[in-house]
Amino acid sequence: MAADPLFNPLTVGDLQVRNRVWMAPLTRCRSLLPGHVPWELNAAYYRERATAGLILSEATEIAQEGRGYPGVPGIFTAEQIAGWKKVTSAVHESGGTIVCQLWHVGRASHQAFQPDGKDPVAPSAIAAAGDVHLPDGSKAPYPVPRALEADELPGIVATYRTAAENAKAAGFDGVELHAANGYLIDEFLRNGANERTDEYGGSVENRCRFPLMVLDALIEVWGKGRVGIRVSPLGSFNDMADSNPLPLYTHLFGELQARGIAFLEIVGAIHGDDIDDDLLQKINAAGREAFSGTLALNGGYEGDDARTALREGQCDAITFGTTFLANPDLPKRLKEGADLNESNPATWYSRGPEGYVDYPSMDGGPVPRSDDPS
Ligand SMILES: Cc1cc2nc3c(=O)[nH]c(=O)nc-3n(C[C@H](O)[C@H](O)[C@H](O)COP(=O)(O)O)c2cc1C
Fold this sequence. Notes:
By secondary structure, the protein is an alpha/beta fold.
């Protein structure tokens, strides 16, 4: 066992990972257009970060209907699968492990992104407050989405299943269901966005029903040992809220345990969210108690706070977002106590290499190709 808890290897379902410094999913809007295809630039970015114990890919669209941001990659065309192969090969060549975060944005979209200019879909016809960034760079208020009919849901489950199969064909090591941050799955879970009166709304059991149908499809494709889920119980991003999150997530965590999936990632505060820290601790503890798979926590961790969380047994791994974005060699820096680069929000969602593959390693130059701090 390593003296530094960040560097204890870990078994995550069927995966063996070399450390507990994981890379959080980070949308970077740099796929090739018009096909929304991952390419060599993306492979270079992920290769630099392959020393993460586990890389959670940027959110990846399961279908055009699931798109709500410019320049983000998909996993539903042959070209996209071939593009992702370049990424997964680069990560594997450098000894890393990468799972694909599967994404349908639900109401966080606009007709401009949808096939034939249709309305975005959601559990209920409730628009998110705020603006959507359109493909031409302008902004518009989020439109009122169309509430999905119950008999449409199996079709969306099938789309997730196909995307999971595509992720396998693309060489990923597993999948993470994006059930956080106000996108489709999260919109079903939390009653700020779900006012349905059928078997997919109301009680916590009902609101978990569709998310679990999707999760079961992913398990059918990958096996439980290569499937994880990301939730953000208290996050307000994309105008989200729930009237009573603790029982909702306690129920969900029990269902995850019943399925025996590989990992659960709980997101705390993102983008400066002001959240109820006591309630977050209770939800994290409920996850720990109910779920015996790998628990990863996210939100604002930098190093010593991550070590404390691991030492206290609050979780098994930490996912680092902005810190990994700006520090391609983050595990090595944490191991050696080096200073960290600051991330530059101006280039988070821009195009091209600037602010993407030009963050220096701790030695000042590019990250060496097979840098293994484990
Ligand atoms: C540029 C950027 C892109 C993000 N993209 C995603 C994403 O694709 N999927 C996701 O679940 N969360 C996404 N997030 C949220 C991060 O994964 C993470 O939860 C957040 O940054 C808080 O962690 P941190 O404090 O370590 O940065 C994004 C955050 C940032 C800053």
